[in-house]
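User: Continuing from earlier, I have the next pair ready.

Assistant: Great, send them over.

User: Here they are, in order.

Assistant: Folding the first of the pair now:
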Amino acid sequence: MGGRPITALNLVMFPAKHLDMGLLKEILRGGHDKALEAGTCLVGGHTVEDDEPKYGLCVNGTVHPDKIITNAGSQPGDVLILTKALGTGVLFNAVRSGRFRFADLERDTLPTVAALNGPAMETALGFHLHACTDVTGFGIAGHLFEIARGSHATVRLDYSSLPVYPGALEMYSKGEGTGSNLPNRAMVADSMTLRAGLSTPQEQILFDPQTSGGLLLSVPGGEAEELARALAAAGVATAALVAEVVEGPPALDVI
C-alpha cells in the first residue's frame, strides 16, 4: 500500500462462442474507464478463450521504499477505520439465485463497489498511517486477524460499528451464503473470541468475502476522528471507526 499505479494490462478470459462480444466490449470499457480514473495508462492486454468470463488488470507502479504501508505496523492505541460496507459476497450470490433483485443491488451497493480506494488512501497518507489492508476474500474477520498477527497485538472489533450493505443480513437469514464463509471462519477460529451476542446472520457478516472491498486504515486513536472527517470531505462514502488495537497476543476479540 502507498504506491502510485503507472501502467495497467488487461487480462481477459472469455467464452466467445457462448457470449455476445458486445459484453466483452463493455467489460473492457469499464476497465479502461477505471484505469483512467486512477491516473493509469492502459497499455494493452491478453485474451484467452475460457468456459466462463474472467477479467482483471495487471498493474505496475512505484512506491518510495521508506513509505510502503503494510498490514503489519499497527500499534496499541491505534484505531482501525473501514472505508466500505460489508456484504457483497452474499448479495452477489443472492442475485444469481433470484433471492435478491439486481435493481436493488445496482442502486444501493454497486456504486460503492465500483468506487476506487485511491481517494481514501491518498487522504490517509496525510496522517500517521501505521498499517493498511484492503478487505477482500478473507472477510473482515480474516483481514483484521492479518493485522493482529502481523502487528503482534490484539484487535478488538466493535461489531455494532460495522457498516453493512442493505439486504445482506436478510439474505443470510433466508439461507443464502457463499462458499468462502466456512473456510474464512475456520481460518480465524483458534484466534477469535466472540463476546458479542450475535445472531447467526450477524456472525456470517464477519466471514463474508468482499469484492472490491474497502480499506482498513490503522492510525493513532487521537487522529481517528479527524481522519474520518477528512475521508468524508474527500468523497469517501464510509469512514467507520470499527476496531482498536490493544496489548495482547495476536488475536481478534469481537465485542
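And the other member of the pair:
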Amino acid sequence: MKAILIILDSVGIGAAPDAAEYGDAGASTLSHLAAAAGGLNVPTLQKMGLGNIPPLLHHRPVESIEGVPPEKNPIASSGAMREMSDGKDTITGHWEIAGLEVDPGFYNFPFENSFPPDLIAAFEKETGRKLIGNKAASGTAIIDELGPEHLETGALICYTSADSVFQIAAHEEIVPVPELYRYCDIARRLCDPLRVGRVIARPFIGKPGTFKRTENRKDFAYLPDEQTILERLVEKDVPVYAVGKIEDIYCHRGITESVHTGNNADSQALVEKWTKEKDSGLIIANFIDYDMIYGHRRDAKGYAHSLELTDQWLTNYLPLVKEGDLLIITADHGNDPTFQGTDHTREYVPLLVYRPGEPAENLGIRRGFYDIAQSLARFFGIPAIPRGASFV
C-alpha cells in the first residue's frame, strides 16, 4: 500500500478570497495560461476531473479552463484547497500540505535596500565577499544587470522578491557550487532570527549577454518547529521517498530516501521508477518547471506546453497506480503568467485524488492544504494530526 503525492509547483486555479490583500485580485493561473495559449490539451487531467473544479470556486463569472471542460464521469475525485497560512510562497504552501500552519507568516524584505545593514555587515565579514544587488528583482534580470560586475570583482549578487527569500547568485567559475552552498549556510543562520522562509543558491554560467542559471539551485529552508506528516510517518516506520527539491523544503527531515532532481522530466522518471519498485510508503514529488522556467518568466505558452507534457506522462503513469494505492495531485500556490510582476499569486490550488476501483467524489472546497496531511495519516493508519479533515 503506497501513496503518491505530486505537487505541481505554482499551478493555481483561481484567486483566493483574500487575494486582494496580496495584490493578486483577478489572478487565475490555469484559466489565464490556457486562454493565452489558445486552449490547453490535457485529456488525462480532464478525465481526472480538472475541469470540474472551477465551477466549485466563488468566481463571478466562473473562469473555466479553455480546452478542459467538466467531465461527466471523472476517474478521480476533485476539489480545490484554500490556504490558511499567511503567504504565497513555496515553503508556506508545502508546509501546510504537510500539516503545518504558518501564522504569522515569514518575514518579507522591503523591495529597495532590502537587507538590514547589520545583516549585510555580518554576511560580508563571514564570507569575505562583498554583497551587490540588495533589492527585489527577477533572478534572470539581476544576473544580466550585475553579472559583469560579479565576474570582475567576485562580489555576490544578493536579492529578494515578494516572497520571504534571501537569494545568492554566483557564476560557477567564480564561486564553485560547494562554496556557494557554504555561503548560503551562513546566510541561513544569519536570517533565522528574522524568520526568513528560504535562502536560495542561484548558480549560473555563461558570458555577459548569455548568462544561464543551472540546475544546481539549492534551497535552505527555515527549520519548522513542529513535526510534519513526513516525520510522523517515518516515526511509525512508514518510509518517505522525496523527489526534486522536497528534501530542501522539509530541511531533510522525515525522509527515508531522496534524489534532488532538477527538472520535471527527471522527477517524473523517478516517480515512475519508485512507483514500480516500492511496495509501500509515501512518494512525494515537486514538479518545478512550471514555476521556475515559465511562471516567473511570464511565459504562458511555455507553461501550457509543460503541462501538456506532464499530461502525456500521466497517461502512461496512471496504470502503475494499483488498487489500494492513493495518488494525490495538487499545487503549492499560483504563479499566473499573464499577471502583473513576476511573483507568485495567492490562489486556490487544485486537488485530484485517484484511487483505482473507487468511485469519484466531489471533494468541494477544502479549508486548509493540511487536509492532505490528515488524509495521509488516515490512509496509513497513524494518529490524526492537529489540523485538517481527511478526504480518505
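Worth noting for the second one:
The chain has a mean pLDDT of 96. The chain has two domains: 2-101+224-380, 117-221.
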